Amino acid sequence: MPRLATALGLLFGSLVGGNAASAQAIDDFRPAIDSRGYLTLNAAQVLDHMDMSFGLGSLEWGRNLVPSSVDNLVSATLVGAVGVRVGLPFELGVSLPLTIMNGAYDGQGVGDFGAHLKAHVAQLGPIGLGALASVYIPTSNDPFLGERSTTPQFVAIADATFGRLRLAVNGGIRFRRTTTFMDMAMNEITTSSELPMGVAAAYGLIPEKVELIAELFGAIPIGAHQGYQPLEALGGVKLYLAKSSYLSLGAGRGLVPDAAGNPDFRGTIGIVFEPKPAQRTHAQIPDEVIAQAPPAHDDGLGDRDNDGILDRDDKCPDDMEDYDGVDDEDGCPEPDRGRVITGKSEIITLQPIEFEFDKDILRDSAYPILDEVIKAIQDNGIALVEVQGHTDEQGDDGYNLDLSKRRAATVKKYLLDHGIESYRLQSQGYGETRPVDARHTQEAYTKNRRVAFKILKRI
User: Fold this and answer.
1) pTM of this prediction?
2) What architecture is domain 283-458?
3) Looking at 209-307, which runs of residues are DSSP E strands?
4) Whole-number Å distance between alpha carbons of 152 and 112
5) Which residues contact 413 (CB under 8 A, 6 or more apart)?
6) CA 210 and chain centroid, separation
7) pLDDT for 445 beyond 50
8) For position 259, what pLDDT does the model report?
9) Which helix (H) or strand (E) holds 15?
10) Rounded to whole angstroms, how far apart are CA atoms 414 and 409?
11) CATH topology for 2-277?
């Protein structure tokens, strides 16, 4: 009898909608395509050039996903992505679910193959904007394991990072052929094109180690629909096994009773790896080692002090030249100018403001430089300064942004504690979003790790 009911349901679906039910049609759960994402929602950030992310995006169990038809659905989704930087940063990704279900209907096999293209469109301070284009290609002859036609999807992504807190919003459109079928209780279910959307929040309980995540996701049908309204709440945790490689655990349930696509319980586990290329792995070394390391050979074409003057033309190759229109091109700082120059729009430090490695604690070498910054603010009619923190591109985007904010705040506090009024100062971290040198080299990383002083207003 169950087999006869299934056959009647499939036949009715083929006559009315030209397509039969599928796991993809009734299950809105799709894991994030890369290690930058949350559980199901994606982040605007993309992988660095030629960096890879791959693994088991999710092994998820849904209980009573279709009332009276699918008691249990277990799906393992493999994911993989690679970053590419050709003008706009983007990445290419793939996904493939392997599904088993039981209940009044039993089935198992390979679900729809997904191909993905994600781009990081813009970074506006802490807010990132991205876009994700996907296409799901039928790869199964079993109509309960995948769509019967190619399904394109477009999603806009916005996210923001505030210290340890990450927030994201995803919303878009999924073009699906209208599908009508009967569940095993002969209830009619109709699915069609829809607007997938969701919100997520993640908090770094222990930065780079433990992250708590909460999500709300679902889809709004925009065509014919009946008996199907996916809306689900999910909570979980990411345990980072390495820099961006993690184990994820999650649990939740559907929020629309008796509607297909709303499991009574959802449990998920995933493990995703992001191995770094060899040339990037050894890049995380203390700043003092980078600063003090001499070149392997001196052919006069290097620039040890990063002042823009080649060593062969630099009379002071280990001391940074004055710049911003007041240099004399000999490579030597002018003795009477000290460590700081006040330009039209910026207070320029001729030596870097140094911190303890990977911390927001100032080194002793920073104090005399900041004392001269204080004098420059007081003596040059400066009414408002933005203390800007910047990092290089190594490591996690969110962590870099948080570190840059903390370092900028530390410098601001020093200035406040040494006589600058609070209304004359503000601080902001920009992470890796504003490099002064776009190359992927140690020399560029050294230049990009910096604290800058932007003059916003004069008296």
Assistant:
1) 0.58
2) 2-Layer Sandwich (3.30)
3) 210-221, 231-240, 246-254, 265-273
4) 12
5) none
6) 16
7) yes
8) 81
9) helix 2-16
10) 9
11) Porin (2.40.160)
